Amino acid sequence: MDKFTISKLAESCDVKNDTVRYYERSGLIQPIGHTKAGYRLYDQESIRKLKFIKKAQSLGFKLEEIKNLLYFDHSDKATANDVLNITKNKVLEIKQRDKELKLILKILEKLVDLCPGEGPTSECPILDYIYPK
Length: 133
Known about the structure:
Blueprint: H1 6-12, H2 17-25, E1 33-34, E2 40-41, H3 44-58, H4 63-74, H5 80-114, H6 125-130
Antiparallel strand pairs: 1-2
Helix pairs in contact: 1-2
């Protein structure tokens, strides 16, 4: 069984050592042991978990949700419905965020259209909108 130091684990997953340490503190990943010098050691499963975490984050899952997904992956009691519910909630959350972003985009586009781009800042409504006087 291959064993990796934190730097090798981080490098293999294209993250920083501090990211691995943060995930450890968050309870998402744990070393399998330590060297005689006290360095943390990880295995192939650690690489798999770290890649899982990064992929789940890229899909918008928060660390607490990822912790639940990892638990479900290793639980004899978890069901596909448990995973489905977290994912459905994420879909709803993303749809709501999409609506919010579309509204923000409309506002910003209108502000861009209203700002002449030349002259004093007092002639541009962008700053007034953000920081009204």
